[in-house]
Amino acid sequence: MTDSAKARAPILAAGGILLREGSRPRIAVVRLRRDKSWVLPKGKLYPGEQAVAAARREVMEETGHRVSVRRFLGSMSYAVDGNIKIVQFWHMRAVGGPVRELMYDIKAVKWLSLKQAIETLTRAHEKVFLANVGPIALRAAKQHARDKSIKRLVRNGSRRRDRSAAVASAEYSHAAG
Fold it and tell me: SS in 3 state form for the chain?
């Protein structure tokens, strides 16, 4: 590959819109140590690494949380030192509390409402991106919570019916015998 072709090759990266779900979902933003900017958790792909695997790895390294990857949200691109950087993002859910220390490049993590996260982000292109995909991630999180509640109700309801049927069967067997 020539130097000019190498210079034009895009930088590939991946990250996540990481939510801590609950009655008031919160989005993770991270503070970079080198320039103190607040950004979305993301990072470059290793050679041969799939984007979704890189997103999971980078978000865990930068936030300290294990994550559950939900769905692809979109991508953004911007110029970095004369090259184009393309970042793919997934909707993710934090699983439990922190499980590891933050990587050295990250000074802090904040969990904020969508509005606060947009206001806190330092880079204009990330503010615009989050303003567009953040509501999608929040709606998906709410739908997931509703689906889980419905499944739990159905599961608990069928257990009650199973127990009721077992009691009725036992009563019938006892009365018949």
Answer: CCHHHHHHCCEEEEEEEEEECCCCCEEEEEEECCCCCEECCEEECCCCCCHHHHHHHHHHHHHCCEEEEEEEEEEEEEEECCEEEEEEEEEEEEECCCCCCCCCCEEEEEEECHHHHHHHCCCHHHHHHHHHHHHHHHHHHHHHHHHHHHHHHHHHHHHHHHHHHHHHHHHHHHHHC
